[in-house]
Design a protein that fits this description.
Elements: H1 17-30, H2 42-49, H3 53-65, E1 69-72, E2 76-79, H4 84-108, H5 111-130, H6 136-151, H7 154-171, H8 176-194, H9 198-224, H10 252-260
């Protein structure tokens, strides 16, 4: 893990230390600052966050229960890695549930919640237009959280919250063009909810998730199609050990970097 991955030392704050460490680690994973497969060393995390190892250990357990972290007997904790099959299955289930939630939101038509969704949508659109992409993770979470509230089904909302965490790890970080399209899709979903069009709201919400999933899976296919010549070596950030691929077989992570390169 690169030194400086975290925005602040949570030990300097005064609210629940346990909750803060969980929130910081979760955001670092979902925004891609901590990469899939990356090892999580308790001592190093504690130093970066300005806390003792105990709240870090508790946070790792909590995020492991959410499926964001894997804990292996010998290797220890690392950011979870999804197989392609797991990714497809999770995306399909989330699309189905997001569609039903949007249908319920159009049916309930709670004007107070709709106003909150409009407010988040305006902030997200403004952030995209201004190129403030670092704000979009939080705003996207807020948008979908308010959508869940508009559906007014707590069981469904709890299921979606868990699935959003898993799929956010798949989709982050998105390209600027994808971010722009995503917020246009958000606007379309909200218009259908305001109009009370249950079918359109359900269809648009499901398509929104499936389209993002298609983009992700296409990226995986593109990565797998890359030549297998060994990539140029890059120096590791200070304090981070390098993980070398097996001889003659570059890691998927090194291929992924090649896809992201301009």
């Amino acid at each position: 893990m690169a030194i400086g991955s975290f925005k602040r030392k949570v030990g300097e704050e005064h609210s629940s230390l346990h909750g803060q460490v969980i929130a910081e680690l979760r955001e670092a994973i979902l925004t891609g600052r901590l990469k899939a497969g990356e090892r999580l060393v308790e001592e190093r995390l504690a130093d970066e966050l300005g806390v003792s190892r105990n709240p870090v250990r508790e946070a790792i357990r909590a995020l492991a229960s959410e499926g964001l972290i894997e804990v292996a007997a010998r290797r220890g904790a690392s950011v979870a890695v999804m197989s392609e099959q797991e990714a497809r299955e999770t995306i399909e289930v989330r699309a189905l549930l997001e569609g039903h939630n949007a249908r319920l939101a159009a049916r309930r038509h709670d004007t107070r919640v709709i106003k909150r969704i409009e407010s988040v949508l305006n902030k997200g659109t403004a952030a995209v237009n201004a190129g403030h992409f670092d704000q979009l993770y939080r705003l996207n979470q807020e948008f979908h959280g308010e959508l869940a509230a508009a559906g007014q089904n707590r069981v469904l909302g709890d299921l979606l919250q868990r699935l959003r965490g898993r799929t956010a790890m798949l989709f982050a970080p998105m390209s600027p063009s994808r971010q722009s399209r995503s917020w246009n899709e958000h606007a379309g979903i909200l218009r259908a909810i305001i109009d009370g069009d249950e079918r359109a709201a359900a269809t648009l919400a499901a398509e929104h998730v499936m389209r993002a999933g298609t983009d992700f899976m296409a990226g995986i296919d593109e990565i797998d199609a890359l030549p297998t010549a060994a990539p140029a070596e890059r120096s590791a950030p200070s304090g981070k050990a390098t993980r070398k691929p097996k001889s003659g077989s570059p890691s998927r992570e090194s291929k992924r970097e090649a896809v992201k390169a301009p």
